[in-house]
Design goal:
The structure is a homodimer. The first copy, chain A, is an alpha/beta fold and about 220 residues long. The first copy, chain A, is about 45% helix and about 15% strand. Chain A binds a DNA duplex (24 and 24 nucleotides) through helix 3.
DNA sequence: TAGATTGTTAATCGATTAACAATC
DNA sequence: TAGATTGTTAATCGATTAACAATC
């Protein structure tokens, strides 16, 4: 497996490849060509071959790619078989949805602790894990050394908690659902943002822009 | 406001600009230069000036940009003052989190109906709206003509419901949380995906890749 | 006026697409 | 062998950065 710094554009396509391969595999499809996969995924065959060749030559000239082999390789590339210990911070609506909706185990993670500062939630269980007071967070982390923290917090506290985790317990990997962009400062931190509000605003722009375009042509007619 | 088809790269930066401007405005900062904004946002001044000039000349040479004016303009560009009627489909963990966590009104949307097919949920309320049976969905839409549908469904049903909404009631705008890529088919559909699982897998890749790089240099030493 | 900072054009960089020789 | 399809190099396209004249 060669790997000379893969570009983010390629990296962001990997999970989608994995999904399609998983589906093909589940449907017992044995082989696929770059052009067949391209038409299914709405990409070009060229791009698929370029993407795959970032990681090695998986294909066979004249034949294509073995779905099963490719699927497995992609799992390894993504690191799906890891078990990175992970803490969830914030067990409000969003935190609970994330905890119950996402299959951590099949994606390389393991939930080991959940924290909130709402007394009503402390002591209750979520995914079989007891929700602890945020006061225990630092001590828990020092003892259990999680690799990843999921931030499901309202805006301001997101930044504070992240800073604390970075500086006091050395967590460097975050899955961030809080609205604000934490950390332009820490260059060595891996921060994966899920900015749902940004996505919704983008949708608003796209709809509004289309309406504007429609009105403009109406006027021209 | 000029607008000759804005590229997706620019569009996806708009909500982030809006957030930063909102913050600056809330802090009563009156003017800002492209270079000051660039350093705060981790972009280049050049890019900011290019981006803004997609929509018009908001600045003043020698002075910079008026925060308040720019903030307001961006609100208009994004279409934040619209009130697109929106239905939420799926009121499980994720649907409930989305409904309660997101401020639709401040982003150009209005929740008008919620649907689920779990009998336990039907009749209960969420954000003041009674959850209805999915059986009512088509009739409701024919009567109320929502502009947007939010899909918070498990994988397969996502595709089915989307197809039904597109074909039977003519909905063309979707905020999609379901795992699978609906619609490569419908070219005129606006689909904004929030693939949380993909984001988590990307995080897994980035962590795993870093570990691999670390091990590689360790071995070289 | 002098200094600052924009709007815009030109240069560079990166990502996607096309082409084709290698080979199963 | 002939046909298919890869891996890879070259060409194109788009996005970002740099430069600078215009101007507040």
């Amino acid at each position: 497996m060669k790997n000379d710094r893969i570009s983010m554009s390629v990296i962001r396509r990997l999970p989608r490849y994995y999904r399609f391969l998983s589906e093909l595999n589940a449907n017992s499809i044995k082989r696929i060509s770059s052009s067949e996969l391209a038409s299914r995924m709405g990409l070009t065959a060229s791009q698929i071959r370029q993407d795959l060749n970032c990681f090695g030559g998986f294909g066979q000239q004249g034949y294509g790619y073995s779905v099963e082999q490719l699927y497995e390789s992609f799992g390894n590339i993504l690191g799906i078989h890891n078990c990175y210990p992970t803490v969830l911070i914030g067990a409000g609506n969003l935190g609970r949805a994330v905890a119950s909706h996402i299959s951590f185990e099949s994606k390389g993670f393991k939930l080991v602790g959940i924290f909130d500062n709402n007394p009503q939630l402390i002591g209750t269980k979520l995914k079989g894990i007891e929700i602890q007071s945020s006061d225990n967070l630092v001590d828990f982390c020092k003892e259990n050394i999680p690799k990843v923290a999921i931030l499901c917090l309202p805006r301001d506290s997101g930044e504070n908690v992240a800073e604390k985790l970075i500086n006091e317990v050395g967590i460097k990997c975050f899955w961030n659902f809080s609205h604000y962009d934490i950390t332009l400062k820490h260059k060595d931190v891996i921060m994966e943002n899920v900015h749902m509000s940004d996505s919704l605003m983008t949708l608003c722009y796209r709809i509004t822009d289309e309406e504007r375009a429609k009105n403009a042509t109406d006027e021209t007619e």
